[in-house]
Amino acid sequence: MRTSQLYLNTLKEAPSEAELTSHKLMVRAGLIKKLGSGLYTWMPLGMRVLRKVEEIVRDEMNAAGAQELLMPTIQPAELWQETGRWALFGPQMLKIKDRHERDFCFGPTHEEVITDIARSELRSYKQLPVNMYQVQVKFRDEIRPRFGVMRAREFVMKDAYSFDADFAGLQVSYGKMYTAYSNIFTRLGLKFRAVAADTGAIGGDGSHEFQVLADAGEDILAYAPDSDFAANVELAEALAPTTPRAAPAEAMRDIDTPKQTTCEAVAELMGVGIERTVKLIALVGGEAEEFFVVLLRGDHTLNEVKLAKAVGGEFRFATEEEIRAVFNCPPGFLGPIGLDTDNISVIADRSVAVMSDFVCGANKPKFHIAGVNFGRDLPEPNAVADIRNVVSGDPSPDGKGKLELCRGIEVGHIFQLRTKYSEAMNATYVAEDGQPKFFEMGCYGIGVSRIVAAAIEQNYDERGIIFTQAMAPFALAVVAVGYHRSEAVKTAADQLYADLKAAGVDVLLDDRNERPGSMFADMELIGIPHRITIGDKGLADGLVEYVARAGGEMQKIALADAVSFARKQLA
Amino acid sequence: MRTSQLYLNTLKEAPSEAELTSHKLMVRAGLIKKLGSGLYTWMPLGMRVLRKVEEIVRDEMNAAGAQELLMPTIQPAELWQETGRWALFGPQMLKIKDRHERDFCFGPTHEEVITDIARSELRSYKQLPVNMYQVQVKFRDEIRPRFGVMRAREFVMKDAYSFDADFAGLQVSYGKMYTAYSNIFTRLGLKFRAVAADTGAIGGDGSHEFQVLADAGEDILAYAPDSDFAANVELAEALAPTTPRAAPAEAMRDIDTPKQTTCEAVAELMGVGIERTVKLIALVGGEAEEFFVVLLRGDHTLNEVKLAKAVGGEFRFATEEEIRAVFNCPPGFLGPIGLDTDNISVIADRSVAVMSDFVCGANKPKFHIAGVNFGRDLPEPNAVADIRNVVSGDPSPDGKGKLELCRGIEVGHIFQLRTKYSEAMNATYVAEDGQPKFFEMGCYGIGVSRIVAAAIEQNYDERGIIFTQAMAPFALAVVAVGYHRSEAVKTAADQLYADLKAAGVDVLLDDRNERPGSMFADMELIGIPHRITIGDKGLADGLVEYVARAGGEMQKIALADAVSFARKQLA
After folding, report:
1. What percent of chain A has pLDDT over 90?
2. Where is the Aminoacyl-transfer RNA synthetases class-II family profile domain (chains A, B) (predicted)?
């Protein structure tokens, strides 16, 4: 396409409400335009990107044996009442009355509709497995839509649903989707991780999130650079240290800490590493309201999900009043020494359990104690468990190298729903033994429009977006400097453009009558990954210039070789 | 694809509520499935058809220089209030309140949104012309949705909007869309006509409907088989007869018509052609309530649109009381003789004006008169005009051959909106002279999902759908008879399937373990245009069978030639 034919409208300034880089850049590049709160038009340039993402998604879904269908966006309330989600979904669901005052919603997701289809269409085990998907606009009435298309109210989603005869079948279907998703994000050229995740509101058993790695992400992930391991930081296991506890070497002694109420401050005062300190957290658990404490290394943080699992139930933080009643000491100076361990359970994190000669609170105001040892100065903990968040440098739970932490943006989510929906909606098939059985279901979502924003969060610089080739609105820009005043430039540019198109290159010829700087800036802002510049000066020597958007030196190449050169760059 | 991998679920019986053939066949073939009133899921087989239509639409829109975008389906009420259509659109528009109780609608069309985009994005004449389109789900809350996807509430539409600097530009943009639409329907393989049309609710000046010809159509069209002329029957001009009026040859005489109150009955009684009779229709026009009459040939019908134009205003049919007051005679025996033509205007259709020796009512009960002549027996009419509907055999208004009548289904509509929306929303650009000017707009719709139903209405038989190659879910079916019991059939079928796929043929291999008759019936029902059958008997002689869905003899062809044969059929 020629820029003169393309609807291109870039802006110098981003709207003041845009907080996120991707939001700013998408508006400035003219990919999207706001219609209302959480409502965006995908302008022609953005639409090219969106459709490229869509087509890769379709391609991999089809390759995985899923079949595309299209369900209505408007769904009858009755189906949602069957699963109880009409009430549960809350105000995020856009509820609608039609002209006959019947209740409908603008579908935020389609489990109910697809299960309704399955229970009338899929009658026999012979028809299974089936996986159906759609690429569709969804609506979720976010209370505070923001971040552009990252958290819009109306957005494009790919949602797929699998139906299997049994759990083993579901696992096969789930595995195919896991692979398809990995293929999709790989083909899109994104750095991503599939992480084990909580299932959240959709319900069911196993689940993975696909996270595009980007500093602006809301989720913190732990991953192993040397392996496929990745998990939401809340779920990653902190392995037990392999080195055993050293024998006590120091005598216990009080440390005067008049103002030091944190491990950091105490370690700094003492001139020791914070990993030599232990902090105590006082908690109250269960219906019986039992007071208990946990011990963590000073540089670690409590993982409440893990602790809840370790204690087998819910708990809350103790109030200052409760703490003073037990310790007769204000928070900031608490420690495990002298505790009534017959009545107060002590749970130590795995890292704490192997410590010796450590520093902790003295249970008297303005004092800590150093040289503390389990067995000698206080009893062994009642329990040792993994109750902390992993940190960068922890060994990877899969035994392959060390963990790193990063932020991610969730762009895909796959769930093993099991029989949650089929039971609620009485969706059965006739099994091989002639008996009706509930479908084993999976559901698989991709935020198609969100991918574009996430990709930009991962790849941009001060000049604008850096699209990967698979997602770029055009793979290559030919910038013709002086197209409107130099016959030589015009002839060469038109010919190169025609040759590139004939070679199957997705090329944009910038044939505008603009200053070179402004043309370059536009091509950089909108993120075209490759650029060839044609100008009078180079042409005199039969040369054009090539530069990659992602960086690297500008190269002079022979005009005659430009097509083959470009094809090599794009390969 | 293999049938064993395809979600295929055909039905013997159509739902009882389905009135239209296309509705019945689409449900039976498993193309669509009902979710609720006017809400249909496009099942995988139907989705293949829908996406083929979509892609042809996109391809031709892009080729015409239009650019795809995607506007939100949910639109703020404020924009619709600017044009006044929030109130005007009525209950067909699905109105919605979001969680903050703000008013929105599920867009039935997008003139307001695109005009809002234009007024902020298109600032200079240098940016014009622009044509943008989207392929999107729309919702119109039909009071009685029926006919399946033909008149569904939720449907897929392609809507395009053009912005030009002046009317001449609009006409160019309009012409491009006219051509693009013609290309689309031609490529889809449909018999269609572009007809001049009234603009209806969308407003503006020029407009054409694109009608797929089918007996089930709601609209009646007049078209010239020898030319491009086509018009809605209400709008086609009935040319004035070229033969002049013959001189009177008969004397006036009363005809005893005791029970004959229609021209048909009188002509039958007299044994003359009905085209020798004249009927009088009594009307009351304008605010002044003036009584007037029109004369039509007995075999013609009044065209009220034309008459309103001829009299320059509105009119109504006279009541029997008013008729008796003027004629002193009951309806059924009225004629133009003896009328007080100073006070009662007589408008004759062009066909009547050239008649002589005609038959008409006698203005006395139970009598007609024959041998009546203008000038001799009654004054010349006060006016002669084209006030009738054309009939089959009328000369084409473009002078090329004769008209035929047929029924059509509207699948596309293009409008010259002019400045209706740009004025209402104050959408201007800066013209070359530096002055702000309103955009000249056009809008262009295609009922993408309706096309599928219309195509089926045009092409089906007692065995099911007959898809054109461009729209068929698969171009060619290979039916393997005995795939599961004959190694020879399995080997040959798998090889042919692989070879056809390698040759780029959109092929479906029916590898199910079903009776041959049931496999043939399914392939016929779902409308696959070409079929090759492989069975043990033919294979023994190295032969397979080919048959076209649209008809024609079954042909035996060498298995070795099957790929090249198929490619020729598909070319």
Report:
1. 85
2. 33-473
